[in-house]
Specification:
669 residues, alpha+beta, Ubiquitin-like (UB roll), 5 domains, 18 helices, elongated, disordered N terminus
């Protein structure tokens, strides 16, 4: 068999051997350092590191060199049997931690000369002369390792003890005990004290009571500092001790016992006061918590009652578009409930008949809502016209010298007030004779309004009404009166000093009507004005817009409190909040899945950045307060939830991609 060959680049050993067929086989053995323990006696153990390919004879030579003996006198035993010198270290047994344990002894037969010094396994020679480090093997299981495989790591323990010189020692004459110098026992010493080599100390071993002398005056001592200078001691810090009355041991002991009892009473009394204070504070805290819960419950009930009363008032007396949308929502919910009831109770022809009755009832309800809407629209139009005429008839007012109120009543203001009174009479129902007198009065007034462009048409309408009232008995003049009122209102608004403004108009792509731009609202999710207000409302299903309006107001209030005037929350509209809640966040909280729209809010996702549709999260009111107290979002929310929120932000950025363009020059004061 050939000798093994070591590959230095890979730290492996390649052995060549012959098989039964006569061919050579190569066996690759990994070379590694292992810990080897040698037990000399029950209390003496040494440890060393050797390669696992080393022979026992090589180990003996190394140990003999360190013990200063010959290797022939050493005997290495394992399991009470001597190990052969030619055996490899890896061929012997090792324990569960990968440590090779041997028993190191001397040979019984003496092979050395009787005149020479006998061999001895002296640990002082082993450690003191060579300063050998100790080694331990640490076993790491597969669960604690990075790659999941168990490992045995050899750790070297280095001796970092301080080598200090022995400065001095002395021996007690009576007892014979030797005392080592203090700086040799404790260390490291202050090198400034003994760098000259003539300093010794016994302060650690011996306690001396030096007598203290209190002098009434300043005096000099016989201690010279350097040369002729002497040490001067001042009496500035001296004090006088006055003797008191003599006290026996028993009196002192009785006083100490009394003091201990006093301290015990005071300690227990303070403990009693502390316990009483804690109990009172705990009772007060529980009372405050109960009061707060009761107040919150009462406040929630009041809010619920106010919401119910407002909903009932809106259903009975609708005024705005949101109120009518709520009525349409109630009709739709009623229709769904009736459809479900009819589908469960009836079949065949009876179901068709019930559906027809339901359709008639729905048509009646919708017609009633539409009639009420027309009445409200006409009342609102009359109210706006009345406010406009009152504003046009008011004189100009300002504060002048010495806080004097100055009124400037121009001719145009007087003309508007005069024509306003005639306009009020035109709208009142009256008898035929009074109506004819009013028409004659209006004709005389129209003679002075020659600059009005539609004056001939207005004059012709009043002449036509006069002829109808004179030559006919019963006829409907409502359409004629509407046209007269409209033209007369235009006459009041007309002023020959003011030039008529050009009205910019646009055509709606849905109803194909040309309307002024005032009837087109700017939408954050549309690139151009392609639909008027009437057609835009038909795109969406009617719903309770009060809830979305409250969400928008709460969002804007929070942004004002955070002093963020450039936030996109001030550009968002109620329809945008509705789209954000229903289409992107699906109408429920991302945490608790609560779908109650009355308590849903849209706070910031990242509190340090301004609010935007791609920096918000749908939560309830309580969850919003807790969310604003979070400092690190990654530690609070898991990866799955953060991924879902980021996908919602992508949808929000895509839906409101034109929002940044609209908000470039926007600033909310």
């Amino acid at each position: 068999m050939e000798s093994p060959r070591v590959n230095s680049s890979t730290n492996t050993c390649i052995e060549h051997g012959t098989s039964s067929s006569g061919q050579f086989d190569e066996e690759i053995v990994q070379i590694e350092n292992v810990t080897v323990k040698f037990r000399i006696s029950e209390s003496q153990i040494i440890a060393q590191i050797y390669p696992n390919r080393l022979t026992i004879m090589d180990i003996k030579k190394d140990l003999a060199r360190k013990f200063e003996i010959t290797p022939e006198v050493l005997c290495v035993m394992q399991h009470e049997a001597e190990v052969a010198d030619s055996s490899l270290l890896m061929e012997t047994n090792k324990n569960e931690f990968g440590i090779y344990e041997f028993c190191l002894k001397l040979q019984k037969s003496s092979r050395w000369d009787s005149k020479s010094k006998p061999a001895k396994l002296d640990l002082n020679v082993y450690y003191n002369k060579f300063h050998l480090p100790d080694f331990i093997t640490v076993h790491i299981s597969g669960e604690d390792s990075r790659d999941g495989n168990p490992k045995d790591i050899v750790i070297e323990i280095q001796n970092k003890a301080i080598d200090k010189p022995e400065l001095a020692r002395y021996r007690h004459k009576i007892t014979g005990i030797e005392y080592v110098e203090a700086f040799t026992q404790t260390g490291p010493p202050n090198c400034d004290k003994w760098e000259n080599g003539n300093y010794s100390s016994r302060d650690t071993q011996t306690n001396y009571n030096y007598p203290k002398l209190i002098t009434p005056n300043n005096e000099t001592t016989q201690c010279f500092k350097d040369g002729s200078n002497v040490l001067f001691v001042s009496n500035a810090k001296d004090f006088t001790i006055t003797p008191r009355k003599f006290q026996t041991y028993y009196q002192k002991k009785r006083l100490d016992d009394k003091l201990k009892k006093i301290i015990l009473i005071q300690r227990n009394f303070r403990r009693y006061l502390l316990v009483r204070l804690i109990r009172r504070a705990a009772a007060e805290y529980r009372h405050m918590v109960a009061d707060r819960l009761q107040a919150e419950h009462k406040l929630n009930e009041q809010i619920e009652q106010i919401h119910i009363k407002r909903t009932d008032r809106v259903k009975q007396f609708p005024q705005t578009k949101e109120d009518f949308d709520l009525l349409y929502t109630e009709v739709d919910n009623w229709k769904k409930a009736e459809l479900k009831r009819i589908s469960q109770m009836h079949h065949g022809v009876a179901r068709i008949a019930e559906f027809n009755l339901l359709l008639d009832k729905e048509i009646g309800l919708l017609n009633g809502i539409e009639r009420q809407k027309q009445i409200i629209r006409k009342a609102m139009q009359d109210s706006r016209e009345e406010q406009l005429l009152n504003k046009m008839g008011q004189p100009i007012e300002w504060i002048g010298y010495k806080d004097t109120n100055i009124h400037l009543d121009l001719l145009r203001h007087q003309r508007v007030r005069f024509l306003h009174e005639i306009y009020k009479d035109l709208k009142k129902p009256m008898k035929k004779e009074k109506r004819l007198e009013l028409i004659s009065k209006i004709k005389n007034v129209l003679v002075e309004e020659q600059d009005f462009q539609k004056l001939p048409e207005l004059f012709d309408l009043f002449e036509r009404e006069k002829n109808i009232l004179i030559y006919t008995r019963v006829i409907d003049l409502e359409t004629l009166h509407k046209r007269q009122n409209f033209l007369f209102l235009e006459l009041i608004k007309f002023s020959k000093d003011r030039k008529p403004k050009e009205i910019v108009r646009n055509m709606c792509d849905f109803c194909k009507k040309v309307k002024p731009l005032s009837q087109f609202a700017v939408r954050t999710r549309e690139e151009k004005l392609n639909s008027c207000n009437a057609c835009y409302c038909l795109k969406f299903k009617a719903g309770n817009m009060h809830i979305y309006n409250s969400i928008l107001r709460a969002l804007q209030r929070d942004e004002r409190q955070k002093r963020s005037p450039h936030s996109y929350a001030f550009i968002m509209q109620v329809d945008d909040i509705r789209h954000l809640i229903e289409k992107i966040w699906h109408g429920y909280s991302i945490l608790s899945k609560c779908n109650d729209l009355q308590i849903l809010r849209l706070p910031r996702w990242n509190i340090r950045e301004p609010w935007s549709p791609w920096n918000c999260i749908c939560l309830t009111e309580t969850e919003t307060q807790n969310h604003y107290n979070i400092n690190d979002l990654e530690k609070t929310y898991n990866q799955k939830l953060r991924t879902e929120i980021q996908s919602r932000h992508v949808l929000g950025r895509k839906a409101f991609q034109n929002l940044a363009t609209l908000g470039e020059n926007f600033f909310e004061y």
